[in-house]
Amino acid sequence: MGKKRLLAIIDYQNDFVCGSLGFSGAEKLDEGIAQRAQEYLAMGDPVLVTYDTHGENYLQTREGRTLPIPHCQPDTEGWRLYGKTQELISGTCCTGLLHPVCKTTFGIAPETLVALKKEIGDLDEILLVGLVSNMCVMANVCTLQAAWPEAQIIVDASLCASFDPALHEKTLDVMQGMQVQVINR
């Protein structure tokens, strides 16, 4: 039997690509992320998609006080996934393979991770792609590593980005120091 793999697409949403927190270069990840998702789905491997999700009280939260830019409000264009990735995910009928998760902070909540682990089962490998490297990607590396401690955690550096390229590189260094396999750097 082959490896049990999971693709985790982290917050590849319009607000982080072309919206209120968008930055140059984020749009270039779209083709590669959509292609990876298509490969995983075609092989019958699960795909986790996280949605950064904030309510009207965002500016009163700790994150909102530190980053006072409203973003990723449910059912807005900014909350939706970007480009070809959105087309692929919204057009996928393999709903048993898709695991959408709304999260109100950088990382997936512990109770959600417990439910995901029951749904998905054991994993040998978890590949993370998406935005923002030094925030939500990093946080989810930690949460997924805690939930699946025996899985090899992999980050595709060519399919992650940050508004700060130097911080992106430093984050990749830190991830490698945490025994994460960073590929395509």
TrEMBL record:
It comes from Butyricicoccus pullicaecorum 1.2. Residues 7-183 form the Isochorismatase-like domain. CDD domains: cysteine_hydrolases. This is Isochorismatase-like domain-containing protein.
